């Protein structure tokens, strides 16, 4: 963990200047690749990176977190562009930003942390699966299917095309070589400290672009439009807001972008000992950035853990590093935009496949299954639902399942029956008696002999809902009409509420009737 002491501006500059260059080198291929994978001009990804650095970087909230286009939004953006076009995307991002500002001003940012971690991990895993499946087509120079299920069902046909097409084989070779170069360079960086400033993704893309140009390989490269031609500034097409599909997309953008940013902030806070993130202010900052991106017709932004962790590990001390990284992006897109056009599409696909795999908790899932199976089920179901339907439906399924899981665990009940054959049958019920556990309670009670004395101990109940209370009352009444000795109900001396115990008959060491709450 990076230690923190408030630095002077000279000390901060010596640390933040090289850190900003590291973040710039990490952000450059990702900004371009995410834009291309989202179906928008590559320049728009750089615009979002510039706004994330120069604007959001100056705002309060988090001091070391870096914002820009995120791989986690790629699938959402691609679907939105496919349905509503670039103009519709601008309106969606603009309204999403305004909603984030409103949520932050209402001090609701901290409540995003109440979203189940399993749902967020499942959401990212589902996005990662779709990114990997979609970019496999680009890796082989093929056209990516639009639908999520189509990306998976079309893979056998893709394999057949690669086997029979020399052009596809060349593209696949470039992509696989890029992926291999990237992973090997990252491994080398861990052993050689001097190489840590140069990210593997940048090295791999530069090598792929150089070899493609020198060997004149038949591989498709990025189409460059120019910054001014790519941007479509607009104040928003407000008529689009009458479309329920647009409103659902805005809600999904807001939820995903906000959750990813705030979870990233929590992760970055664990990497250093500097000032902690103010989640409400960070949400306002992210909303301001998305509002500007929407006005410029650019991609949506979130805080990005890859760039943020690179910023911390490079020794950044203040906000200056993330602001400077935005400046370097601006200078690049203004001075040498033509270099983007040399990048082969399979190389960018390899970068995104690498990023998509990182979104999937492959290593953490087995441990999660052993320790918290319910959480693992929520994660997997959310990911599968996103892959087979769409992002909005998948997230709703995950949230619904998380609520059901929480309700089920909260309603934990234990029914213990002790019968030695001579004394009264002792039945002890502990936990929370809710309608979800009513079958368990009634199954145990109905199995008791009807002609035996029963002592029902309810002192361990923390809560009894109306359904369970009614059922227990009915069971006591039924048993009392059949047995010679009435049921002895032992209830707490003081109930937390009028629904904390059930009616019963006085017993030796219990309370009589219904205690007052």
TrEMBL record:
Primary localization: membrane
Region of interest: Disordered: 498-517
Coiled-coil boundaries: none
Keywords, alphabetical: Membrane, Transmembrane, Transmembrane helix
Ranges of compositional bias, category Gly residues: 505-517
Transmembrane segments: 17-37, 44-64, 84-106, 118-138, 158-180, 201-224, 244-268, 327-357, 377-404
Entry's localization field: Membrane
Domain SLC26A/SulP transporter: from-to ranges: 13-382
Topology of this chain in the membrane: Multi-pass membrane protein
Name of this protein: SulP family inorganic anion transporter
Native organism: Micromonospora fluostatini
């Amino acid at each position: 963990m990076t230690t923190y002491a408030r630095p002077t501006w000279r000390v901060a500059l010596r640390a933040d200047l090289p850190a900003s260059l590291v973040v710039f080198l990490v952000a450059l291929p990702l900004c371009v690749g995410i834009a291309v994978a989202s179906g928008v001009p590559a320049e728009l990804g750089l615009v979002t990176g510039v706004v994330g650095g120069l604007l959001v970087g100056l705002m309060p909230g988090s001091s070391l977190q870096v914002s820009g286009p995120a791989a986690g939004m790629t699938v959402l953006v691609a679907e939105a562009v496919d349905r509503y076009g670039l103009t519709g995307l601008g309106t969606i991002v603009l309204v999403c930003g305004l909603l984030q500002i409103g949520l932050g001003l209402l001090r609701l940012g901290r409540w995003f942390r109440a979203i189940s971690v399993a749902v967020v991990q499942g959401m990212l895993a589902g996005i990662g699966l779709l990114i990997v499946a979609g970019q496999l087509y680009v890796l082989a120079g093929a056209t990516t299917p639009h639908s999520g299920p189509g990306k998976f069902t079309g893979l056998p046909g893709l394999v057949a095309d690669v086997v029979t097409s020399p052009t596809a084989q060349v593209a696949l070779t470039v992509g696989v070589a890029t992926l291999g170069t990237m992973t090997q360079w990252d491994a080398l960086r861990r052993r050689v400290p001097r190489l840590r400033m140069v990210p593997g993704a940048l090295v791999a893309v530069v090598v792929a672009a150089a070899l493609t140009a020198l060997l004149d390989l038949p591989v498709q490269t990025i189409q460059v439009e120019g910054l001014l031609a790519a941007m479509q500034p607009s104040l928003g097409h407000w008529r689009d807001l009458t479309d329920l599909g647009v409103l659902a997309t805005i809600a999904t953008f807001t939820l995903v972008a906000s959750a990813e940013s705030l979870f990233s902030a929590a992760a970055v806070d664990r990497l250093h000992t500097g000032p902690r993130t103010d989640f409400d202010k960070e949400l306002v900052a992210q909303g301001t950035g998305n509002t500007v991106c929407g006005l410029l017709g650019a991609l949506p932004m979130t805080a990005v853990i890859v760039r943020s962790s690179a910023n911390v590990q490079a020794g950044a001390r203040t906000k200056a590093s993330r602001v400077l990284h935005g400046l370097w992006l601006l200078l690049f897109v203004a001075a040498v935009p033509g270099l983007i056009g040399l990048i082969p599409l399979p190389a960018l696909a390899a970068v995104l496949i690498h990023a998509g795999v990182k979104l999937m908790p492959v290593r953490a899932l087995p441990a999660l299954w052993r320790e918290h199976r319910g959480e693992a089920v929520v994660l997997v179901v959310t990911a599968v639902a996103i892959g087979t339907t769409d992002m909005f439906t998948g997230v709703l399924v995950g949230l619904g399942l998380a609520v059901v899981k929480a309700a089920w665990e909260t309603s934990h009940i234990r029914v213990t029956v002790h019968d030695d054959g001579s004394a009264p049958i002792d039945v002890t019920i502990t936990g929370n008696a809710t309608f979800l556990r009513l079958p368990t309670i009634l199954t145990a009670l109905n199995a008791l002999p009807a002609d035996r004395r029963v002592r029902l101990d309810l002192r361990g109940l923390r809560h009894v809902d109306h359904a369970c209370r009614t059922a227990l009352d009915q069971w006591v009444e039924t048993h009392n009409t059949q047995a010679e000795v009435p049921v002895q109900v032992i209830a707490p001396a003081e109930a937390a509420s009028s629904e904390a115990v059930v009616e019963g008959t006085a017993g030796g060491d219990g309370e009589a009737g219904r205690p007052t709450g």
